[in-house]
TrEMBL record:
Protein name, UniProt field: FMRFamide receptor
The organism of origin for this protein: Mizuhopecten yessoensis (Japanese scallop)
The keyword Membrane is annotated on this UniProt entry: yes
Molecular function GO terms recorded: G protein-coupled receptor activity
Cellular component GO terms, alphabetical: plasma membrane
Entry keyword Transmembrane helix: yes
Source taxon at top rank: Eukaryota
Signal peptide segment: none
Membrane-spanning residues: 43-66, 73-95, 115-136, 157-176, 206-229, 260-282
Length: 341
């Protein structure tokens, strides 16, 4: 999420790159930074995170009921769980640490090599790759409908999610430092955590969380759009030629289209929400952490806000674009009211 670079700058005027502190911020610049970000970390972050957690819990309950008949909804159910975990570790825990409710780590550098930050990265990156899986699932349903029963199954979805989680965990767990030196500036055990956490982890996050998933999502969404156009043209020609030959095709296509609308909404919002973070990463690599932060003071706030919203808005997206989701949600509410009576 970029918290490795963003949050440390919010709490201290010392930017630690590896074990070397950089102390070139002036007091005026520190005051500007604190003034700009105080409201975000004390008000906006806990509000967005709390509402997002509640929304993801509701989404998971509804989607889990729908997932009994579709791998698409099973992916979305685990997507809601991943979002919820991201908001807990990257939103609520971070907010509680910043305002002083508890300290899991004693300094900013320790936070970026901590268990809770590693969990934040794992679940955020898992979100991206579940979104990729959803896109591939719908691409098969549109472009290769006769293979849906073979590839778009609940068993394959669970295997994919499990394997992906293990791979992402293997990429991010090495940032955890188990023991620091007396000055809390360098990791003693394991020593490779110094390089892995402060140097390689940023690149891993950018590629695994943003670049590669976005590229795959764009490719498969293009294939879906192309498949829908071809399917519409074939259905139109069949309907004009012989309506009896096409009677079963529109039903299946209409069912698929209901899920495609939700998919396009989720992926479009995902790509739009992470663009500020991608810009921040690029600026950081080109200009360095310190120069980027001094010249683009508001960009970290925008990037973190959009990232939080990316993991908080799925309930609204499902509600507005998913007819099946709305119907199941309404039926569950009516059932609860009946029980109360």
């Amino acid at each position: 999420m970029g918290d490795r670079n963003l949050s440390l700058q919010n709490q201290t005027s010392h930017i630690i790159n590896g074990s070397i502190p950089v102390n070139n911020f002036t007091d005026f610049e520190d005051d500007r930074i604190v003034g700009n970000k105080e409201n975000f970390y004390e008000l906006i972050m806990p509000i967005i995170s709390s509402l997002g957690i509640v929304g993801n819990i509701v989404s998971f309950v509804v989607l889990f009921q729908l997932s009994k008949s579709s791998s698409f909804y099973l992916y979305l159910a685990f997507l809601a769980l991943s979002d919820m975990a991201s908001l807990v570790f990257g939103g609520i825990f971070q907010w509680m640490r910043i305002v002083g409710f508890f300290q899991l780590s004693r300094s900013g550098s320790q936070f970026f090599c901590s268990v809770d930050f590693s969990c934040t990265l794992i679940f955020m990156q898992l979100y991206s790759w579940i979104t990729v899986a959803v896109t591939i699932d719908r691409s098969i349903a549109v472009c290769h409908p006769f293979h849906v029963n073979q590839y778009c199954t609940r068993k394959r979805a669970l295997i994919y999610i499990g394997v992906t989680f293990l791979i992402i965990a293997a990429l991010n767990l090495p940032i955890i430092c188990l023991k620091w030196d007396d000055e809390n500036s360098s990791c003693v055990m394991p020593e490779f955590a110094n390089v892995y956490c402060f140097k390689y982890s940023t690149y891993i996050e950018m590629f695994v969380y943003i670049l590669i998933p976005v590229l795959l999502i764009c490719i498969f969404n293009s294939l879906i759009a192309r498949g829908l156009i071809i399917s519409a043209n074939k259905r139109r020609s069949l309907t004009s030629g012989n309506e009896n030959n096409s009677c079963s095709t529109p039903i299946k296509n209409d069912s698929t289209k209901k899920t495609i609308t939700t998919l396009f909404a989720v992926t479009a919002f995902y790509i739009s929400a992470i663009l500020p973070l991608l810009v921040y990463f690029i600026q950081e690599m080109v200009n360095g952490v310190e120069n980027t932060f001094l010249n683009l003071i508001h960009l970290p706030i925008v990037a973190e806000t959009c990232t939080l919203l990316n993991h908080s808005m799925n309930l609204l997206l499902y509600g507005f674009t998913g007819q099946g989701f709305r119907e199941k949600f309404a039926s569950m509410l009516c059932f609860q009211r009946f029980i109360r009576k």
